[in-house]
Structures are given as structure tokens and as C-alpha cells.
Design goal:
By secondary structure, the chain is mainly α. It has one domain. 46% of the residues lie in helices and 0% in strands. It is built from ten helices and no strands. α4 packs across α9 and α5 runs antiparallel to α6. The longest helix has 14 residues. The protein is globular, with a radius of gyration of 19 Å. The N and C termini lie far apart (37 Å).
Length: 189
């Protein structure tokens, strides 16, 4: 993203990494100027009236027009465990039911607050997965990474050698978003 707006991510940005203190804590203490936030950090800072969102990949174009969260799997794993692969895809697609998924995020301790989970899921276009083109999303991100020298392979090569849409295409036609039986079998495992 930085390169896309004319910044050199290597020379123009001093990257701060670490777990303690977290980048969100450093930002709140005004020790760094910005940070790349993931839920529930932005929600917490917003509730405390700290900072402003500069870019939201869930709302700002062109990022919001593409999948920003995709599944990836090792080729050998997919070949060895096709049923598990299909179940994982089914579970991911069914996460587009925010009213059920937000409760599960809290129950599984990904975030301590239900309102943060609900806000995160409602701010992101989880209900748009049938409208987006996964291949186009991979092409978009691969092109950005290739243009700025982060990867050597061009988007066509990545699509040809690194993607397999069979499982996704099978699931897209068969998943009914409002069918409550879709998530429960996966959650029980």
C-alpha cells in the first residue's frame, strides 16, 4: 500500500515490530506515528478516541473491490486431505454470517468484546464473497507486489502455477448462506 501511494517501504518507513509493547500501545503512547492494525486493536483505539483510520481495506477503493482475506493451503495437504479442505472452505464461506460469527469470535477468545467482533464483521464486506472474483483478487495483489519488486513472478505465472479454484467453485454453487447446518458440523470438530 505504501508503495502504491509513492512511498518507498524500505527507505521511507521505519518499521517497528515486536510483541511487547505492541504497535497499538506504542501508537497510543505517541511513540510511533502510525501502525497497521487488525481487530480488535482499531476498535479499541477508536473507542478511546485515539488516532484516525488512514486506509480501510474493507471500505476504500481499490482495496475494497477485492478479497482481502483468502485461504491458502499446501498442495500436498489438499491432495492428501480433500474432505478437510472442503470443510475448511465451507467454514470460511459460512463466516459471512456476521450475526453468528461474531459470537464465535468472542467464545473462542479472539476478542474479549462482542461489540468489537460485531463491528469488525459489519464493517467488512463478508456478504460480498459471491460477487467478488477470487482470480481477479489474486491478480490485483500479485500485480502490486510484482510492480514494487516484492515478488519476482508475474501475476499470470502465479495464477497458472499457484492457484486451484476447483474446491472453491464446487462450494460457491452449493453453499446457502442462511442454512444454519453449514457451520455447526465444522465447529464441533
Amino acid at each position: 500500500m505504501a508503495a502504491d501511494v509513492g512511498l518507498d517501504p524500505v527507505n521511507d518507513i521505519h518499521w517497528v515490530t515486536g510483541r511487547s509493547p505492541t504497535p497499538a500501545a506504542l501508537f497510543a503512547d505517541r511513540k510511533i506515528n502510525a501502525f497497521l492494525g487488525f481487530p480488535p486493536e482499531p476498535q479499541d483505539l477508536r473507542a478511546r478516541h485515539i488516532g484516525h483510520v488512514i486506509v480501510s481495506t474493507g471500505r476504500d477503493r481499490p482495496w475494497s473491490q477485492y478479497f482481502y482475506c483468502m485461504l491458502g493451503a499446501n498442495r500436498d495437504y489438499v491432495r492428501s486431505y480433500p474432505v478437510a479442505t472442503k470443510r475448511a472452505i465451507r467454514a470460511d464461506l459460512c463466516a459471512s454470517e456476521p450475526e453468528r460469527a461474531d459470537r464465535r469470535l468472542v467464545d473462542r477468545r479472539y476478542t474479549p468484546r462482542y461489540d468489537y467482533a460485531s463491528q469488525t464483521l459489519n464493517e467488512n464486506a463478508y456478504d460480498k464473497w459471491r460477487e467478488y472474483d477470487a482470480e481477479d483478487a489474486v491478480r490485483f495483489y500479485a500485480l502490486r507486489l510484482h510492480e514494487f519488486g516484492f515478488i519476482k513472478s508475474n501475476p499470470q505465472k502465479i495464477l497458472a502455477e499457484g492457484t486451484d479454484w476447483r474446491f472453491l467453485n464446487e462450494r460457491v454453487g452449493s453453499v446457502k448462506i442462511n442454512d444454519p447446518s453449514l457451520i455447526e458440523p465444522i465447529a464441533a470438530q
